[in-house]
Amino acid sequence: MTTHALADLTGTYVLDPAHTRIGFVARHAMITKVRGAFHAFEGTLHLDGSDPSRSSASVTIEADSIDTGNADRDGHLRTNDFLDAPTYPKITFTSTASEQLDDSHFRLTGDLTIKDTTKPISIDFEFTGAARDPFDNQRVGFEGAITVSRKDYGLTWNAALEGGGVLVGDKVVLEFDISAIKQV
Fold first, then answer.
1. CATH code at 17?
2. What Pfam families does UniProt report for this protein, alphabetically (predicted)?
C-alpha cells in the first residue's frame, strides 16, 4: 500500500460487530480443536496513515458473550473455572504501540486484561483492504492472530485424561477478523 493511499485512511474507526469476528481456538482432549467467538464487543481504531506508529486501538469484550456452539461448555467457560464472567464481565485490550512492518503488515502492542490479570502482547495484523460500502461508509479490514497461554491469565482449570495428558490445552489462539467503519 502506498504512503499516499494509507494517508487517505487516517481517522477514527469503530468496529462493525456485524462484520467483525473475535474468536479463539483451543485444544480439547489433546486430539481436536474447539473454536469459539465472542459476540458482544466494541472497539475503536485510530489510524494515522502518515505515521502508523501513532495509530492505536482499544477493544472491550463482554466475557459472557462467549459462544462455542455448545451451551453446557459455554456455561462452564463463564464460571470461575475459566472467565468468571459474573465477577470479571469485561476482557479488554488497549494498545501501547503500533508499527508498520511492510506495505500491508502491522504490529499492534498493548495490554490484554482477562479476569484481573493484565499482560503485554503483540499482535501482527494484515491490512486486508479498504472500501466504501453501499451506504457510503469508509471501511477498513485487518486480520490477525496471537497465541497466548491461558495460565498467564489465571485460567488454570483442567482435568487429567485417563491415558495421559489434559482435557484443555494451555495455548489458545486469539483470532481477529476486523471490519471497522470510519467516523465522520
1. 2.40.128.110
2. YceI
